[in-house]
Design a protein that fits this description.
The chain is α+β, with helices and mostly antiparallel strands. 41% of the residues lie in helices and 26% in strands. The strands form 3 sheets. It has a 5-stranded antiparallel sheet. The N and C termini lie far apart (53 Å).
């Protein structure tokens, strides 16, 4: 890997983007001319050191020291996923420089043997990326709960459906609704109702696996999408969520405020359409409502 890099050194040194390479142990073995310009550190000062030596001392907007805790390059070495984020690196003269970094894995014989980080101080690019990220959050996330909104849910559901058609990866859908939420708002006010929605969203998030998906469908309704799950486990997860919500509460002065939820669920089937799966889960939800609420109904 190191010998092959020498062939391209002239090209890499003349790129208008900073770039450096690390091996699997995060030892830096290449540092190009643009990286020297943006950071103030010459290649001979950096090469053969380790990125966790914290030379650039990357921090985010909260001041988190990413080279020590949360290094994107280290994560890419672990899982092979590409990453992109804005960080503030330490310049040799002492000031901070905003850069947009990207990390990519290096493979050899289908095994990760190193990684590359590119970064740029193109402020216009960074500003535009920040604006794109901001607009993406506004467009795709619910502003109250920070959960994906209906638009995001529809997009995720579409991708899950395509994965089922092309790869045979099944998924389950849970629809859930807060019981008598209108009465709760009337009794305690919408501000307290908003706190309940936040409490419920966090409870549901913490009940799920890392790769599971939950979004706010609208009002007091939420949808959970769980890939590659059996009917038995779908019901188990639904019951877990129901129980955890039932045991969550807010303290308001001398009052303990609680809500319950009704849940309906189903698994995708061979003849399903993208509309029929959430519709069947919603029908199951109303069976739970008609059965006294605070219960789970799973339709096969």
């Amino acid at each position: 890997m190191y010998k092959d890099l020498g062939v391209y050194k002239t090209v890499l040194d003349n790129l208008q983007e900073c770039i450096y390479f690390v091996d699997i142990k995060r030892k830096i073995f290449f540092w190009n001319k643009e990286a020297e310009r943006v950071t103030g550190f010459k290649a001979e000062e950096v090469v053969n050191s380790y990125c966790y030596d914290n030379i650039l001392q990357h921090v985010d907007e909260q001041g988190t020291k990413l080279c020590i805790n949360g290094c994107p390059l280290e994560k890419t070495l672990e899982d092979g996923k590409q990453r992109e984020t804005i960080v503030y690196l330490y310049h040799k003269k002492g000031h901070r420089v905003a850069v947009l970094i990207r990390t990519l894995p290096i493979y050899q014989n289908e095994k990760i043997v190193g990684a590359v980080e590119t970064f740029s101080d193109d402020f216009e690019h960074i500003r535009m990326r920040r604006e794109i990220d901001r607009l993406h959050v506004l467009a795709m996330y619910d502003q109250l709960t920070d959960l994906p909104n209906r638009r995001y849910i529809d997009s995720y559901l579409e991708h899950a459906f395509k994965d089922y058609q092309s790869l045979g990866i099944g998924f389950g859908v849970l629809m859930m609704d807060i019981d008598h939420f209108g009465n709760f708002n009337n009794n305690y006010g919408h501000d307290v109702g908003d706190e309940v929605l936040k409490m419920l969203s966090k409870t549901v998030e913490n009940a799920l696996r890392q790769n599971d998906f939950v979004g706010r469908w609208g009002g007091e309704e939420f949808m959970v999408i769980l890939k590659d799950i059996s009917l038995e486990n779908l019901k188990r997860v639904a019951e877990k969520i129901r129980i955890l919500v039932e045991n969550s509460f807010l303290k308001k002065e001398k009052h303990i405020l609680k809500v319950t939820i009704s849940i309906g669920g189903t698994l995708i089937k061979e003849r399903d359409t993208i509309e029929s799966v959430p519709k069947r889960a919603d029908d199951a939800l109303y069976v739970s409502k008609d059965s006294g609420r605070n219960c789970v109904t799973i339709q096969n």
